[in-house]
Amino acid sequence: MKIVSRNEELLRDALSCIPQPSSRTSLASCNKLIRFEDISAAAFKIQCGVQKTPCMYSRLSKQYGMDIYLKKEFLQYTGSVKERGVLYLLMSLPQDQQRKGVIVASDSNFSMAVAYHASELRIPVFVIMSTSTAPARVKTCREYGAMVISYGTTAKDSQVHARRLAQENGYLYLEEEDSAVYLSGLGTVGLEMYEQVPKLDAVIFPAGGHCGLLAGSAAALKHLNPRISIIGVESESFPVLQQSLKAGHPTEDQACNNHHFYGDVSGVCFGSNSLQLTGKLVDKVVAVREEDILISMLRLLEYERATVDAEGAIGLAALVAGKLPELKGKRVAVVICSGNLELHLLQRCIAHALTLDNRVCRFSLVISDCPGDMSKLLEILAREEARVLDIKQERTFVTSELFTVEVICTVETRDKIHTAQLRNALLERYPTTAWTER
C-alpha cells in the first residue's frame, strides 16, 4: 500500500542532484532521491535480519511531565541501530561483489555491524583496526566472523591500508556515508515507531557527526504525519550539525574526532544528503552538556535497566536538561540507539554521574584523636542514613592542634535533599566541616 502525502515534494527538493565526492572508494553509486517507498522496501527486506525493537512506555514519564516512549535500538545483536542501514546496504550489493567481499577500517558501531551481517550473509569481511583499538572491540569483531587485522597507530593509517587492500584484491571498501540505500535502512526506525506508538507528538533522535538516523527517520515520519515534531540532539562540545546547518554545507570539528566517550556522535562529518534532509525535515536541533548525558545514562540504568553509551543516552539528555519545555504533557518517543560502552568506561561514567546527581559526596573535618570521637561521627552518619563508601584519617599533615586527626569521608545519599540534610547535621556538630564541591 502506498501512502501519499505532500511531503513527497519536500523529499524531492531535499535530495535534488547532490554530487558524490570522487575521492570516496566505497559505494560509488549516485545518491538518488530517498522516497518513502525506498524506506518501506528496506523494512520488508531486512525484517528477518534485524530485531523489531520495542518502543515502551517509560517510568521516567512522571518525573519529566510527559508520556515518554523509549525505542530500544540498543537491543540489536551488535548493540546499535547501525545494523539496519548496514544490512540493507550489504543485501543491495551485486552478487559478484558479495563473492569478492567487503572491507572496513574503524572500531565504530558501523564496522561491528558490517562484521556481523556480512558474516551472516556469507560475504567475506575484513576489518582493519589500529593497534590502539580496545582489545574487547577486536575480540567482538572476530567473534562475529570477520578477519580482523591490526595495522598502524592511528585510524588514518588503518584507512589507508584498507583502501590499498581493497584496490589490490577487489574488495569493496565501506565507510559510513549517507547513500540513499543506507539512509533508507536507518529510516525503518521511523516506520516502526509510527506503528508502535499511536498519536505521537514528537520524536527525539541523536544527531552530531553521523545524523543518518535522524535524516532517514525524519523522511519516514514526516511522510506519514507532517505534524510530528522531529528533534535532533548533539553535544555542546561538538555542535557539528548546528554549525553545518548554519553554514549551509557539511563542516567538521577537528576537536571531536576519535573522542572516546562520545563515540559515533563525534565521528567524521556526515554528507550532503543527510544535511539537506535534516534542514528540510527536522524541526529543531538542541545541544546538551556532558553532565546531562551522564545523568541520562544513570537514569536509563536505574529506571530502565538499560546500559547505554553517550550516543544512546543523548536523546533523553535533552529532557533531563530541560531543553524541550514545549513537550510537557505531550506524547514523546526517544530513540536509545546504542549500548556499546566498554566496562571500564561505564564504571567511571556511573561514578561521575552519581556525584553530579548529588548522591555521592565527600567532606573533611577535624576531630580530636581520642577514643570514642570517631564513633560519634559514625553515629551521626548512621542517624542521617548516609552510607559510608570510604573513610580516611590523616594525622601526619594536620595543621591544627597536636592531638587531632583530619577525617576525609565519602558517603552515598538518596538525593539532593538528603545531602543537604546531612550537611546541616554535620555543620551543627562540626562547624569547620569542609564540603568538597563537585
TrEMBL record:
GO terms for biological process: isoleucine biosynthetic process; L-serine catabolic process; L-threonine catabolic process. PROSITE patterns: ACT. GO terms for molecular function: L-serine ammonia-lyase activity; threonine deaminase activity. Pfam families: PALP (PF00291). Its cofactor is pyridoxal 5'-phosphate. The keyword Transcription does not apply. Residues 362-438 form the ACT domain. The keyword Lyase applies. Keywords: Lyase, Pyridoxal phosphate. It comes from the Eukaryota. PANTHER family: ACT DOMAIN-CONTAINING PROTEIN (PTHR48078:SF19), THREONINE DEHYDRATASE, MITOCHONDRIAL-RELATED (PTHR48078). This is L-serine deaminase. It comes from Mohoua ochrocephala.
